[in-house]
Amino acid sequence: MMLRANIEIALNGLGANMLRSVLTTIGIVIGVASVVMIAALGRAAEAEITRTIDAMGENMVIIWPVADSERRGMVSTRGRLTERDGAALERDLYGVTAVAPQLQMPVQAGFEGDYAPTTLQGVDAAYLEIVATRIAEGRSFAEEELRAGRTVAVLGASVADELFGGENPLGKRIRLNRIPVEVIGVAEERGGALTGDQDDFILMPMATVRQRFREVEAGDPDAVDMMLVQFAPGMSVSEGAEEVRRLLSERYHVREGDIRPFTVFDTEEFSRQSATIIGAFQAVLISIASISLLVGGIGITNIMLVVVSERTREIGIRMATGAAPSDIRNQFLVEAAVLCAIGGLLGLILSAAATYLISAASGWAVAIPPLAAIGALLFSATIGIVAGYAPARRAARMNPIEALRAT
């Protein structure tokens, strides 16, 4: 009952000086909103990284060739990575379940006056299996189409929407760099990720892309732009990536100290490094936001000292009518805690509005973690108790007679 009475007294006192109360809590509001938003954005970033890696496929290593210009400062030429390398990886490395080479190039897709710049990907059966491309409409490639290099395509959801809107694209002929191509399917929508729009692509058989869209490079008739290597479940992807580097280094006679003509992307290591970077980034931002909480706490201490001075006579009357020093102390501690808790609640409301706007603008699923919300309220109330202790202690130590004489 005493706690309830103290809370009522605190709310009445804060309501009587509304403007002062609001201004006092600004530091707490900003600090709590910042900390909660940082926690929400960190959680969303981790989820996006996980979603990006999942979209690449499980137990995956990705290999890109490194252009000569990056290695020697020369005029840019395509790096070296061939289907023969993929065959060697599949043959010589333990635990490799599939290798999928891929060709990539920018194209202009057109249909009846509508155009969409996108990425054309030349793929084979292994790619469709590794990436687990799901078809929303139509069908995927038949074996004969992949082998013979037919001019058929599967559109990403974004490309299909941009070219056809709500119209059924199946059986229609689009033009890719003026080459007519039949649409046989539309891939299931994946959504956005850290790597961008995952639905902005067109899939075609690799043989078709090589024959119709790419000039064969001298000396490298089976050159590829990227290669996916999938390992068996339970294997360490990081160890597998190291084995890939070792084997390719041997094939390209890379000596110690040389820059490799390829880059090996390890999804496992990427996930670990990303988590470390996000954690460090959050720690730095939370430390900065905590300064606002500290300033807010100092403001609470100052305003509570003013409140104690203004209510000296009230304190004297309460003591004269039997209130113990602990009752006086608790009253002002509760008032400080309530003031900070209100600031924390306003901070939560502000952070909820901000995360909603960020989510709507970015497409990320940004949501306030429940533990962060509860923790923010408890932490802000704790700041109030700590900040209000000195003023409350001062009030509890007042001499009742001197307090009654105050005007």
Automatic annotation (TrEMBL):
It comes from Pacificimonas flava. This is Macrolide export ATP-binding/permease protein MacB. Its main location: membrane. One of its GO terms (molecular function) is transmembrane transporter activity. It is found in: Cell membrane. Residues 21-246 form the MacB-like periplasmic core domain. The chain crosses the membrane at residues 21-42, 280-308, 336-358, 364-390. GO terms for cellular component: plasma membrane. The keyword Cell division does not apply. Belongs to the ABC-4 integral membrane protein family. It comes from the Bacteria. It is a multi-pass membrane protein. InterPro entries: ABC3_permease_C, MacB_PCD, Macrolide_Exporter_MacB. Keywords: Cell membrane, Membrane, Transmembrane, Transmembrane helix. Residues 287-400 form the ABC3 transporter permease C-terminal domain.
